[in-house]
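Take the subject:
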Amino acid sequence: MEYEFRRNNLTGTLMANFSMDHEIMGLWFSDELEGNRELLQQLLGIIASLRNGAVTSQRIVGSAISIDLDNEQVRVFANVLETQESIELDESMSLYEGESEAFCGLEDFESALLSWQEFIDEPS
């Protein structure tokens, strides 16, 4: 999983771009995590709790994008996926959900969070 963090020097807006099949993570970092240091610290605490066995899983519900964490992986998904009715498609068709849902290992997610923390702490 590759990612890049950028800062718009005119507006101060922070942006995250993640590699293909992880695009939703970039949206989550940019929309849900941007400017929310409390959520960042909460997530790092949850990861520590997952590692030491204090919790087995945790869900963080955001305004448009949510996260499920367990001791092995992280699922980032658009909230609409949880409320969407099942759509039946012809056998030769499938829905592309790469921009609506992504999975990564817990360690990779923690690494991205720590990189984000370093990025937001850099002077602009």
Notes: The mean pLDDT is 88. The longest helix spans residues 106-121. The CA atoms of residues 75 and 103 lie 5 Å apart. The first strand starts at residue 3 and ends at 7.
